[in-house]
Design a protein that fits this description.
The complex is a heterodimer. By secondary structure, chain A is an alpha/beta fold. Chain A has 10 helices and 12 strands. Chain A has one domain: 3-Layer(aba) Sandwich (Rossmann fold), CATH 3.40.50. Chain B is of the alpha/beta class. Chain B has one domain. Chain B is about 25% helix and about 35% strand. Chain B has 12 helices and 24 strands. In chain B, the strands form 3 sheets. In chain B, strands 5, 6, 8, 9, 11, 12, 14, 16, 17, 19, 21 and 23 form a 12-stranded mixed sheet that branches. A 10-stranded mixed sheet of chain B has the order 4-3-7-10-13-15-18-20-22-24. Chain B has a two-stranded antiparallel sheet with strand order 1-2. Classes of the chains: A alpha/beta, B alpha/beta.
Amino acid sequence: MSSDHASLDMGKAYMLAAAHLIAESKISMVKITSPQYWTNHHEYANFSRHSFSNKFMNHTLKIQNLHAEIDGQKIIKGFDLTIKSGEIHVIMGPNGSGKSTLCKIVMGHPSYEITEGQILFDDKEISDLEPNERANLGIFLGFQHPFEIPGVTLGNFLRQAHNANQKATNKEFTPASPVKFMQDVKAELENLKMEASFAARFVNENFSGGEKKRAEIAQMNILKPNTILLDEIDSGLDIDALKVVAEGINKNFQENNPAILIITHYQRILNYIVPHHVHIMHDGKIVKSGDHKLATTLEETGYEQYITN
Amino acid sequence: MAVPLKTQKTIKETVGEYKFGFKTKTNSFYKSPKGLTKEIICQISSQKNEPSWMLEYRLKAFEIFQNKPMPTWGGDLSNIDFADIHYYVRPQDRTQTNWDDIPPEIKETFEKLGIPQAERKFLAGTGAQFESEVVYHSLHKKLQDQGVIFESTDVALQKYPQYFKEYFGKVIPAHDNKFSALNSAVWSGGSFIYVPPGVHIELPLQAYFRINAENMGQFERTLIIADENSSIHYIEGCTAPTYSTDSLHSAVVEIIVKKGARVQYTTLQNWSSNVYNLVTKRAHAYENAEMFWLDCNIGSKLTMKYPAVYLLGKGARGEIQSLAFASKGQHQDAGAKIIHSAPNTSSKIVSKSITKDGGHGTYRGLIKINKGATNAKSHIACDALLLDNHSKSDTFPTNIIEEENVAIAHEATIAKISQDQLFYLMSRGLTEEESTSLIVNGFAQPIIKQLPMEYAIELNRLLELEMTGSVG
């Protein structure tokens, strides 16, 4: 993948997509006025609100001068970053620089208190929104340590999440048929080299570390968010699993044109995913930004030169 | 963290949202005055036209009841006023076998509860008890032809006295405890089932118990005999109107599982929150027999119930799985008892409790391995889920082991819904309520999956109702 992948010809893409959908007879009605007013009355999970909005609406997540703390301890200290649809950003940085905390705060974890600054999604402040309200805007967090939910199957959980996402923006939405939805889940699991039976297993319970990470990507690809945060999605993966995960991310990026923010310690995932922007985070803020070459430089020189004040 | 304040506020109190709390206006055929006397017991027995030995049995039990002190070890029983209860309410003159012959207001009650629909769909037989009497009983013709007996206990006593002489009160004698004595004195209704050797009843038989009158005591008596190599699944459901005064439900259930037979007894207890539910349930399992109690307690003010299995023949197996849900003002004091009295016997106990809004869940269990029960195996797992900081969960396991060559394992967990689990689910778009409800259902899932599908759906729905505070 090269750096020109962001410059999607939007008009062309939408015509192609419309032709494709009509040819496949997968939608019953398409109102062609302007892209954002397309209504989609059919039931299929694959062609959801997000796939339209992702392709044809641009979204911006803007974090401005963010300061945040937990139990009085300051973690984020003046963080600024803007990510847009069609961009892949990477944040690297030593342990304890606040990378994971940043992801949790953007997603709305209740333990953290924002003391200063703003988080804007399409120019609207979202700091007061519940995590589910943020998710329903199309924001997604791939967890570093996904949690186990005993007794709840991955398929059932995803169906509820998908229906919640859809209902939030489309009052007329009718839920996908469970059978069809499960087929989509299984197809996505197979893309990530996971057995279809994972759909019937309890969320993350007795999954290996690698399986948990792949399941996060499967969830992401099914829910089709427009703004994606991936917190150390590459940690604990062997080389084969890393490739599968990276392919899953690239596929999502190509198909849905989301904004992606990847948090990582290691350069190695960048052998498979080419970011537009690389940022180095230290002590709660970004200390250096550059293009994908920054990651390579970093691999050679280490963080030292960027983090000494 | 506990469930966030916001969720707690939105979870309404259970009282007032109970779906089955409607009352039906009926004219009773006979209603005993409040309180319990010898005369009332004689009256009950004579109305039922019972053999004299049963009246003697009742009167003796009444004496035992009067002499036994109230138990002080379980839930709080101090508000039960035995003088303020109607012990016998007869809604109609006799048990009907044709649904159309039931008085319309009673029929309507059961129709609201979905009983006839369920029968048509997936049951092999149905019994419906209203107040003290079974008003309706039916069994598929095919099973009747195979010699299966499924009757109200009163009718069965008249028609099949031989079984009563041999088995009645043998598994649970009147003197077992104060409430088994009370039941033995005033029992009325319940089911009698006999399954002949080798007969397997594939669809479940169901009994439905409804208390309608205020200050009512319901004391049904159930006796199930599964003859050699037979099998049966019996399901009971129970509901009552919500009154400001308390009602008492005190059943006795005796089960005999003969050589190679299997009995599953499933309870979906959803009494309104003004019912004391004090029930004695026990089974005797003989050689290579299997007894499985599946006990779900969602409703009632106080439940004290510890289904028991006596493993009396070699290779017998006992299993008790229970789910208890206690909300505001509720105490579920439930558990299990297994007595191993023969070699190579095995048992399994799974107990799950969910407490919220100050509810109180107790697991009280006994495993006893008698001398001679060599190679006995038992596995006990108790899990409690606390949804907030002012709810309570206790575990009182007792193990008495008198044999050396045995294997016992006990696991217990207490969990709260973690903030991280909630955050994880919410980050995918589910509200706090939906996330909590999903976690609770997931917790209960190992029990729910054992229920027949129709009941699993019902229980899932009930739990969701309890969690979201909406009325369906």
